[in-house]
UniProtKB/TrEMBL annotation:
InterPro entries per record: RCC1/BLIP-II, Reg_chr_condens, Ub_ligase/GEF_domain
Pfam families reported in the protein's UniProt record: RCC1 (PF00415)
Keyword terms: Repeat
RCC repeats: 27-78
Protein name, per record: Uncharacterized protein
Length: 157
C-alpha cells in the first residue's frame, strides 16, 4: 500500500512497532496504526489507518525514534545539542518509566508525550535509544547504559 500522506515530503526516520508505526517527514512526527494504549501520542486511544501529525513535536528536532510493543520513545535534540526523551503509550510493565507524582499508583498509560527524567546521576545527554516489546535501553554520551521496563536489570523509577 502506497502512503500518499508522504508525497512531496522528505522522510528522515521511520520505525515499526508491534501494531503501530512512526515516521519523521519534513521535521514532523507522524504516527499510525493501533492506538488503544495511546502509543500514537495524539491524545486519544483511537486507531489511525493513515499517518497523522503529532503536533506536540512541531517545535522540536527529532533525532531518533524507538517503538515497542505498545509504547513509543522519541529522542529530541535542542540547539545546544542537549537531548530530551519523550515517552507515550502503555506503561503496564513500567516501560514509560513514569509513576504518579505521589508514588501511590502506577500510571498505566500516557496518551500524550511525557518527558522522561533519568536518575539524577545520569548524564542528561542521551546518544542512543532502543526498545523491544516492553523493555527500553538508552546510552548517554559517557557510554553509560540504562534499562527499564521488563528487563530483570531495569531501573525502577
Amino acid at each position: 500500500m502506497l502512503l500518499t500522506s508522504f508525497d512531496n515530503k522528505h522522510i528522515t526516520h521511520f520505525e515499526c512497532g508491534q501494531y503501530h508505526n512512526a515516521a519523521v517527514a519534513n521535521g514532523q512526527l507522524y504516527t499510525w496504526g493501533w492506538g488503544v494504549f495511546g502509543q500514537l501520542g495524539n491524545g486519544t486511544i483511537e486507531n489511525s489507518f493513515l499517518p497523522e501529525v503529532v503536533n506536540f513535536f512541531d517545535d522540536k528536532k527529532i533525532s531518533q525514534l524507538a517503538l515497542g510493543h505498545n509504547h513509543t520513545m522519541v529522542l529530541c535534540v535542542d540547539k545546544n545539542e542537549l537531548t530530551s526523551l519523550y515517552v507515550f503509550g502503555s506503561n503496564h510493565f513500567g516501560q514509560l518509566g513514569i509513576n504518579d507524582p505521589f508514588g501511590e499508583h502506577m500510571v498505566n498509560k500516557s496518551l500524550v508525550p511525557v518527558k522522561l527524567y533519568l536518575p539524577s546521576n545520569a548524564d542528561l545527554n542521551i546518544t542512543m535509544i532502543n526498545t523491544k516489546f516492553f523493555s527500553n535501553l538508552v546510552v548517554d554520551k559517557k557510554n553509560n547504559l540504562y534499562t527499564w521496563g521488563t528487563s530483570p536489570h531495569a531501573l525502577h523509577f
